[in-house]
Amino acid sequence: MSPDRNRRPIPDATVSRLPVYLRILGEQRDLGVDSISSDRLAELGGVNAPKVRKDLSYLGSYGTRGVGYEVEYLIFQIQRELGLTHDWPVVIVGAGNLGQALAGYGGFGERGFPVAAIVDVDASKVGSVLGGTRVRPVDELPQIVRSKRINIGVVATPASAAQDAADRLVAAGVTSILNFAPIVLTVPAGIEVRKVDLAVELQILSYYEQRRTGGAAPTARARSASAS
Amino acid sequence: MSPDRNRRPIPDATVSRLPVYLRILGEQRDLGVDSISSDRLAELGGVNAPKVRKDLSYLGSYGTRGVGYEVEYLIFQIQRELGLTHDWPVVIVGAGNLGQALAGYGGFGERGFPVAAIVDVDASKVGSVLGGTRVRPVDELPQIVRSKRINIGVVATPASAAQDAADRLVAAGVTSILNFAPIVLTVPAGIEVRKVDLAVELQILSYYEQRRTGGAAPTARARSASAS
DNA sequence: CGAGCTTTGTGAACGCGTGCACGAGTGCCT
DNA sequence: AGGCACTCGTGCACGCGTTCACAAAGCTCG
Ligand SMILES: NC(=O)c1ccc[n+]([C@@H]2O[C@H](COP(=O)([O-])OP(=O)(O)OC[C@H]3O[C@@H](n4cnc5c(N)ncnc54)[C@H](O)[C@@H]3O)[C@@H](O)[C@H]2O)c1
Ligand SMILES: NC(=O)c1ccc[n+]([C@@H]2O[C@H](COP(=O)([O-])OP(=O)(O)OC[C@H]3O[C@@H](n4cnc5c(N)ncnc54)[C@H](O)[C@@H]3O)[C@@H](O)[C@H]2O)c1
């Protein structure tokens, strides 16, 4: 283990932007572009040029002054830094509405995150095939995770079952979780959790709308928060 | 109605946490809790107590020292600040895999964001009913947005059509967009855009996985080891 | 071969958000 | 009534991230 090489602390803010650069670079490569400036990359990425340069500088000095960055090489470097030089199989917990949409979506496999397995607690869901993968019982999670060497789990269960799903994933050996349920998961230290909460996103938009219009109502009706 | 009260600039970071507090408060209320401390709220929300207090202080001084916050009243205040005292109808553009899952999901309506309309460019999709809403042609967007007073649009089309979808939404009068397509949308100033990119989330998880394991491959494939 | 243009890489200043500590206000109990 | 325990509200310092400006480096062309 070389503590110097892998211990480079890339700021979180930069890590969250690298995937965006990566996707743009891939598109540009497919368009035949083999060199790109920080200016252009910034324009396509919706950020400013100095930020792009600083972000990329954390990877090393892979640009050429007066020219720009070699697209193909930069793609490789970002992939290497993000750990995308190999596939990361994922397991989806919950074969409901959302789980089915995710399983049927090919975009994950294309980006290196093949859906290696789907599990559900509902016996009537087990056995059906979604996106080429058969739904299996949730009890088989430990064997599935071990045999397929899965590190990343996706929680797509109702909120009431999400903590249970997360506990099972952790117990099975998963170390990263992407959570779609609208609750805060409690996990042991060392387990990485990211959440995607669509209602939160809409509520943030609502704030700015309300701010802009000064509170003018599009629909005249009161609401109250509810939970199960 | 407060005249100049609406011009208080709440930090973005706080705005993104308020929906989390709101959901927790709703759950606690349903559990019969009528008063809550910043400590408890912090615990449930996965943050620390001073942050909760500072966040809530932007709304005003609605707590009682020595006691805590009155749940019901705090819910009302957060809803007011976020503009959730009335419904915000949304329109979904793209009735595909994801659009159908979103339409069939009741969670939006419950939280004040009813799916008022779904549009698609594909004639074969038009006319079908998803989650109680009939899919309509994308050309009718202007009339739909105007007649139903819609401010928020959801882009659920393939990436190649996302910019077109956004342009149509903006032209129709929508001022906030939630984008699920993995591209950076270009919109006029004053239009608020938030994106939800699942692949990006997975790639961020991948980074931390790779960092933790030092690059060891879970899948025995493409093990082009990193030399020193 | 050197002048001039282009673009990267980065040190430094700035600003925002976070964490901390503590004063101030409130309720309860004796 | 007074003391005590509790919790909010907030001023302040710190750290991270963003932004700027500029020197260093490379390319082109006369
Ligand atoms: N559908 C959407 O568009 C959408 C949008 C935003 C958020 N969400 C969130 O995603 C989650 C799933 O939504 P959905 O619409 O797919 O719900 P769903 O009810 O359609 O599906 C949930 C599935 O999880 C399974 N399940 C329940 N408990 C389980 C457990 N302990 N272990 C394993 N599986 C279990 C159920 O059998 C069911 O198949 C919810 O938390 C929801 O809030 C969904
Ligand atoms: N399905 C998922 O689970 C998932 C997950 C992550 C991201 N996404 C993203 O969400 C988007 C939609 O994914 P999907 O799986 O639903 O795709 P899809 O192909 O199933 O559906 C896209 C729909 O958009 C319609 N459409 C195309 N161009 C349009 C236009 N100009 N105006 C209006 N409608 C138009 C199509 O007719 C189709 O019905 C994609 O950008 C995808 O990357 C999907």
**Poorly predicted segments of chain A:** 1-5, 220-228
Strand order of the largest sheet of chain A: 6-7-5-4-8-9-10
- Largest interface chains and counts: A-B, 84 and 86 residues
What structural class do helix, strand and pairing data of chain A support? alpha/beta
Bound molecules: nicotinamide-adenine-dinucleotide
Written account of the structure:
The structure is a homodimer of 228-residue chains. Chain A is an alpha/beta fold. The first copy, chain A, has two domains: 12-81, Orthogonal Bundle (Arc Repressor Mutant, subunit A), CATH 1.10.10.10; 90-199, NAD(P)-binding Rossmann-like Domain (Rossmann fold). In chain A, 43% of the residues lie in helices and 16% in strands. Chain A contains nine helices and ten strands. The first copy, chain A, has helices at residues 12-30, 38-45, 49-57, 71-82, 97-104, 107-110, 141-147, 159-172, 198-213; strands spanning 35-36, 63-64, 68-70, 90-93, 115-120, 129-130, 133-137, 152-155, 176-179, 192-195. In chain A, the strands form two sheets. In chain A, strands 6-7-5-4-8-9-10 form a seven-stranded mixed β-sheet. Chain A has a three-stranded antiparallel β-sheet with strand order 1-3-2. In chain A, strand 2 and strand 3 (68-70) form a beta hairpin. In chain A, helix 1 packs antiparallel against helix 4. The termini of chain A are far apart. Mean pLDDT of chain A is 92; it is low at 1-5 and 220-228. At the A-B interface, helix 1, helix 4, helix 5 and helix 9 of A face helix 1, helix 4, helix 5, helix 6 and helix 9 of B. One nicotinamide-adenine-dinucleotide sits between chains A (93-99, 120-122, 125, 138, 156-159, 161, 164-165, 180-182, 198) and B (101-102, 105, 107). The structure holds a DNA duplex (30 and 30 nucleotides).
